């Protein structure tokens, strides 16, 4: 060999071709693949516990939402009922102080009575509300009950 001759580098050996899978998937078949951050070594018992925990948590969340909605419904219903009784007494005070005429007060009272009867399921005209100031006075004793 010539000492002045340069060594010619040999080309690297080509990498072997990857082996095909033992059974190629059929056309349109879904091939399962691991998620990039999937836990390694998750066994069936752990997966079952996780599923049960998630189902219990979801069930409790649904029950909690249902309780909140029922409480809101109850609260709003009470607010409207309180509003009806307080507004009737405020209209009565307005009538007694002279801000409403008797005709206006009767119209309001009849409308509110019909609305209340509808809520309670009472037939219209079954009973009427007493007029303010009509009836017994405070000095009169209450009527005796028939026993």
TrEMBL record:
Keyword hit for Membrane? yes
- Every copy of the SHOCT domain together lies at 90-111
Residues of the region (Disordered) are 1-28, 122-147
Q: Name one Pfam family in it.
A: SHOCT
Q: Which residues cross the membrane?
A: 51-72
Keywords recorded for this protein, A-Z: Membrane, Transmembrane, Transmembrane helix
Protein's name in the database: SHOCT domain-containing protein
Give the compositionally biased regions (Pro residues).
9-25
Q: Does the entry feature the keyword Membrane, yes or no?
A: yes
